[in-house]
Amino acid sequence: MNIHAILPAAALVVMPVRAAEAPAEGLRTAGGSGQHVFWRIEKPRGGAMYLLGSLHFGSDRLYPLPACVLDAFANATTVVFETDLGAAVGSGFSQRMDEAASCRQGEFLGDLVEDDLLRLFGAAVESLHLRPEPFERYRPWYCANSLMTAALRHAGVDPARGIDRVLFSRALQEGKQITTLETPEFQLELFAGLGNRDAALLLRHAVAEVDEVHAFVDTMLTAYSGGDLDTLRALINDGFDALPALRQRFFSDRNAAWLPVLKAHLSRPGTDLVVVGAGHLLGEDGLVALLGAAGYAATRL
Known about the structure:
This protein has 301 residues and is of the alpha/beta class. The chain has 13 helices and 6 strands.
């Protein structure tokens, strides 16, 4: 199971990052042709909805973005994101995150996981040149996210360079109308609401896969840039095969909740750009398939 694909399933990768400055090179057009993780749906009353599959982490390899994506962004009146990505840097939300992630008074990580997992986690943290002691007061789900975020950065990618964060920053700069599908608190609860067993399992998989992150990142960025949907689906979605309850929690239920919101956008004229994690667009329960079943055919660009 690719836990490094699962943990950044929510747009707020739980370790806070600085707000992304939109890099100039990411906003130039890219030449060439080919298909991308990108679809267009014609609106019945005029205009279009564009669906862009994003990665919640990135590097220079993702930029410049394809010309068709930048054209859609330029023409969009409204840009729809999973959540308010600016909230992750606010002091109020950071405090709520810390409260949700912290163990209860007198409780430590070692009280919540088995001894062998605690030892493995400490070794994994040290392999990334970090100290395990600061994590002792945090719950397993937060330690899993922190570990994987550190591993992703060690592999040369960063949430601050994710496509969603870059476009969110640019949308703010240009004064575009921004709407969101979820609150930051909801995304935090996706992790904080996990039971002890699932949270510990998340940490165990994160520890087991730290050494695979470099290879995962290289494969993911290559597949995304090349529009290889089969590989992306295997990397992101198929990793849930062994954990159907987590797939339901992180993908299926959220897609179903987003569907009526997107249908409402489709009922109104104008141009919308929807930017969500690539995994939300792929597969039988992905948004492209769900919207198609609802009568909104999507053309891949």
